[in-house]
């Protein structure tokens, strides 16, 4: 009988140690990336460990805030990455002026979530090339919503690459 008590006690100690390890694992919040456009916004997100960037979806820009409100209630998001369109001489592109009011509203609406900007030059071209490389047919490559989602994923992957 004593032999079984010792085995049970050892098993309980191991279980307690396992629980303490699990409690100390730091699950991070997700990082979300936005490829803002006049008509559409591509959205990408990381996993909780902030290792993998995945395309989430593309939505109409006018629906962005309602989508994000719902998403932020369901998921723990700790950072918003937004593409920063620049020209080759490093000056802001024309679309930056359209984006600034949206970014300001994002900062006001989601004031607890910081926003970082990432250079988004060539992301649309890289997204299109990714579609070609993955074997998508010509008809699917004309899907601008898919290009926006892939562009957001590239922006997010660029951020993840630069922090590691």
Topology diagram in text:
Elements: H1 2-24, E1 30-35, E2 40-46, E3 53-60, H2 64-74, E4 77-84, H3 95-109, E5 115-119, H4 123-133, H5 138-141, H6 144-163
Parallel strand pairs: 1-4, 4-5
Antiparallel strand pairs: 1-2, 2-3
Considering the chains and any ligands shown, give keywords for the structure.
alpha/beta, globular, 164 residues, Nucleotidyltransferase, domain 5
Please estimate the helix content: 40-55%
Question: What best-fitting shape do the alpha-carbon axes yield?
Answer: globular
Q: What is the ordering of alpha helices and beta strands?
A: HEEEHEHEHHH
**CATH topological fold name:** Nucleotidyltransferase, domain 5
* Mean pLDDT over the residues: 81
Number of strands: 5
Largest sheet: 5 strands, mixed
Return the CATH architecture: 2-Layer Sandwich
In words, what does this structure look like?
24% of the residues are buried. With 164 residues, the protein is an alpha/beta fold. The radius of gyration is 21 Å and the shape is globular. The chain is built from six helices and five strands; from the N terminus they run αβββαβαβααα. A five-stranded mixed sheet has the order 3-2-1-4-5, with helices on both faces. α4 (123-133) crosses α6. The protein has a single domain (26-163), classed as Nucleotidyltransferase, domain 5 (2-Layer Sandwich). It starts with a helix and ends with a helix. β1 and β2 form a beta hairpin. Helix content is 51%, strand content 21%.
């Amino acid at each position: 009988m004593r032999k079984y008590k010792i085995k049970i006690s050892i098993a309980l100690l191991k279980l307690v140690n396992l629980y303490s390890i699990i409690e100390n694992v730091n699950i991070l919040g997700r990082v979300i990336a936005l490829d803002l456009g006049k008509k559409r916004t591509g959205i990408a997100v990381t996993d909780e460990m902030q290792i993998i960037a995945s395309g989430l979806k593309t939505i109409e820009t006018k629906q962005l805030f309602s989508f994000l409100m719902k998403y932020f209630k369901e998921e723990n998001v700790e950072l918003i990455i937004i593409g920063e369109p620049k020209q080759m001489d490093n000056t802001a592109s024309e679309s930056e002026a359209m984006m600034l009011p949206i970014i300001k509203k994002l900062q006001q609406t989601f004031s607890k979530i910081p926003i970082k900007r990432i250079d988004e030059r060539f992301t649309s071209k890289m997204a299109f090339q990714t579609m070609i490389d993955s074997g998508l047919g010509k008809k699917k490559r004309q899907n601008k919503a898919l290009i926006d989602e892939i562009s957001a994923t590239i922006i997010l992957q660029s951020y993840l690459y630069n922090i590691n």
